[in-house]
Amino acid sequence: MAHSVAFSSLSVGSVRPARASDLAAPRARLPVPGNGLGQRSSGLLSAVTIGAGVSLVASRLSRRRQGLRGAAAREALVFIDGEAGTTGLQVRERLAKHPGIEVLSLEPGLRKDENARRDALHKADAAVLCLPDDAAIAAVALAEGSDTVIVDASTAYRIADGWAYGFPELSASQAGLISKSKRISNPGCYPTGFIGLTRPLVDAGLLLPDAALVVPAVSGYSGGGKGLIDIYEGSGAHEPWGAYGFGLNHKHLAEMSKWTGLQQEPIFCPAVGNFKQGMVVSVPLRMSQLKPGTSAADVQAALAKHYEGKQFVSVAPLNPTDVLERGAFLRPDALNNTNKLELFCFANE
């Protein structure tokens, strides 16, 4: 009998293997406000499934968690470069409610003016870049010579030297690295589910570093930005669900490999569904990819230990079927606007 494991995040429904003894699919679910499909957003659910073994689900990550440091004695002045975009609008909405933050805005006519943007980047205590990759790189160049903390929401710097990866629960030392850094890259939404499930298992020695993983995933359409939102919310016809990324060269692959400690990139198979925000990320594993003798309980325990005491990440007990809608489905939108990440482990041993 072939044993398998699957990581799963929040999805419209759970991914089920053809045979319980054969496969299990990992999933991650989260609402995606984003700057293109793949940005981390409102809520995330991830799961790992081990067919004839274990299934873990990392459930519900809420909107993008920015890496801004705590408020000082005076209000921190924050500039959002790209504040009129899908991501920028949501960041502005959140920061505007923070009593220790003042948002520095440019007049609409100056938002693309290089000199005005440079001045704002140098004046601010911190800046959040809600821009495409090339524009984010140009913005960082404009900020050279300043003491401004930069939080970049694009994929441009997620594996770059000199940048702190903005996933504070990644390891025991990551939050400290973020708090001391002036260059912080915000994690992608798909990678958050995948890394959130696999990194603790690699660190615990349960998931072998040479494991060759497959990652099916589905996201809400807001992750595609204004263009995809207009398609899904407009009057024209559109697909109810669509797979994409058939070139097998998704921009998140390097990030998913580097921050898990795995030796090779996964095969990533993303899709978009007819719901605005939410995501399910699945990672099927065979038991042979785990340390010999590893049980489903060991996998769940490793996740629970890694995230013990974390404010925004929680791990459910083994086989928490009560979280499944109608006893079968994981909703992709259950954690919208909460900033939380929930992990689940389902087993069939």
Shape verdict: globular
User: What is the beta-strand fraction?
Assistant: 15-25%
- Could you name the CATH homologous superfamily of the largest domain? Dihydrodipicolinate Reductase, domain 2
- The helicity comes to 10-25%
Poorly predicted ranges: 6-42, 51-72
Mind telling me the CATH class of the largest domain? Answer: Alpha Beta
What does this structure look like?
The protein is built from 8 helices and 16 strands. The chain has helices spanning 86-96, 114-123, 133-142, 174-180, 189-203, 225-233, 253-258, 296-306, and strands spanning 4-9, 27-29, 43-50, 54-62, 76-81, 101-104, 126-129, 149-152, 164-165, 183-185, 214-220, 241-243, 267-273, 279-286, 313-318, 341-347. Strands 1, 2, 3, 4, 11, 12, 13, 14, 15 and 16 form a 10-stranded mixed sheet that branches. With 349 residues, the chain is of the alpha/beta class. Mean pLDDT is 82; it is low at 6-42 and 51-72.
Chart the SSEs and their pairings.
Blueprint: E1 4-9, E2 27-29, E3 43-50, E4 54-62, E5 76-81, H1 86-96, E6 101-104, H2 114-123, E7 126-129, H3 133-142, E8 149-152, E9 164-165, H4 174-180, E10 183-185, H5 189-203, E11 214-220, H6 225-233, E12 241-243, H7 253-258, E13 267-273, E14 279-286, H8 296-306, E15 313-318, E16 341-347
Parallel strand pairs: 1-4, 2-4, 3-16, 5-6, 5-7, 7-8, 8-10, 9-10, 11-13, 15-16
Antiparallel strand pairs: 1-3, 1-14, 4-16, 11-14, 12-13
